[in-house]
Design brief:
Blueprint: E1 17-20, H1 24-29, E2 36-37, H2 43-56, H3 58-78, E3 90-93, H4 99-111, E4 116-117, H5 121-136, E5 141-146, H6 153-162, E6 166-168, H7 170-174, H8 192-204, E7 211-215, E8 220-221, E9 224-225, H9 228-235, E10 239-244, H10 246-256, H11 264-271, H12 275-292, H13 295-318, E11 326-330, H14 335-344
Parallel strand pairs: 1-2, 1-3, 3-4, 5-7, 5-10, 6-7, 10-11
Antiparallel strand pairs: 8-9
Helix pairs in contact: 2-3, 5-8, 6-14, 10-13, 11-12, 12-13
């Protein structure tokens, strides 16, 4: 059995299992990709120990906390780890590589497993994530897919991925479509840190010598902020605009956003946030359509009065290669039409647009 020192983040792939020894609440906010949560203190126990530390000092906190830790480790040994073979090799981490992970490593080693501790714990992982985003983002050969709301940009990315192209789907990572009505039904957005973990994980898997297709995004996707290094690279990269007619876009939106009609009152409430932009009379008309399930006139006016003017302003302001963009006509946006666009996009003369430009 090996008795090396704490393991750096870069060596984490050499282990059979990543064990997050933090509380369930900490794990829910963010964790290393693929990690399992085996807390040595649950949320309530962690609160009790923290209170004891403040009120009665370190000894009493360790005495009570030690009993909690022993009971939790016993349960993990009897349940989660019961079927692990003798050659099992886990890597354990807590918040900063302290007592929670070291206590688990000690017990796992006493059993006979080659358990190791992640140097610096989750905090070292966070530093790694931010360093990777900062390092890899400027190296990406991004190809930015643009088009007003309803242009099937996300579906185009999916079709490109199905053809084997490299795709960075920021909206999937943020679990949000990026627009005012873009919340995924019944799905919470991840924390900012979990989004960044997912982003770093996605970037590390990319071949930097090949193009990466990405949708044009603003600096925020719902309540998630796109890291500045990636946003700067996206804005400096060559782009293609999907030029679909308003009729084609409306037909697509009625299919793709049909779920918004499932909860008319919630849709009406979501529209209230646009009141300062469009005034009471317009919003009340839109809310009446929402409550009546009249999505066609609602989406038609949202496109004409809200999304399209916003799009026209933002693309020319934020995409530095916008004047030289490629344009692909899209008379319709049914699945077959999107598949045809996915065949056309990689064949465009991207080199003619030149390298990524700086601001």
């Amino acid at each position: 059995m090996s008795h090396r020192g704490p393991v750096p983040v870069e060596a984490r792939h050499a282990f059979d299992t990543l064990i997050d020894a933090r509380s369930p609440a900490e794990f829910a906010i963010d964790h290393l990709p693929g990690a399992i949560n085996c807390p040595v203190l649950d949320d309530e126990e962690r609160r009790i120990v923290g209170t004891l530390y403040k009120q009665q000092g370190a000894f009493e906190a360790r005495r009570v906390g030690g009993a909690f830790v022993a009971a939790n480790l016993a349960r993990h040994l009897q349940e989660r780890f019961a079927d692990r073979p003798a050659h099992w090799k886990p890597l354990v981490y807590c918040w900063r590589g302290g007592m929670r992970s070291s206590s688990m490593v000690t017990w796992l080693r006493l059993v006979g497993w080659d358990a190791q501790q992640l140097a610096g714990g989750y905090k070292s992982w966070r530093r790694h994530v931010m360093a990777q985003i900062a390092r890899l983002s400027p190296q990406l050969q991004l190809r930015v897919v643009c088009g007003p709301t309803g242009s099937a940009k996300t579906r185009l990315l999916e079709a490109l991925a199905a053809r084997g192209a490299q795709v960075l789907d920021l909206e999937a990572l943020a679990r949000h479509r990026g627009s005012v009505l873009g919340a995924w039904p019944g799905v919470e957005q991840p924390s900012q840190t979990a989004f960044e973990t997912g982003l770093a994980h996605a970037l590390e898997a990319l071949d930097l010598s090949l193009p990466v297709y990405v949708e044009a995004e603003s600096s925020r996707i719902g309540r998630i902020s796109v890291p500045p290094a990636l946003l700067q690279r996206l804005r400096a990269s060559p782009c293609v605009e999907i030029a679909a007619s308003p009729a084609a876009r409306l037909a697509f939106l009625l299919r793709d956003y049909a779920n918004l009609g499932d909860d008319p009152e919630r849709l009406a409430q979501q529209l209230h946030v646009l009141r300062t932009l469009h005034g009471r009379e317009v919003i009340e008309r839109w809310q009446a359509w929402a409550r009546a399930g009249a999505l066609a006139p609602l989406f038609g006016e949202l496109m004409a009065l809200h999304y399209d003017p916003l799009y026209a302003r933002s693309q020319s302001t934020h995409l530095f290669q916008w004047p030289g963009r490629h344009t692909l006509p899209a008379p319709a946006l049914a699945p077959d039409d999107i598949a045809r666009l996915a065949a056309q996009v990689p064949a465009l003369p991207w080199a003619a647009l030149g390298a990524e430009k700086s601001e």
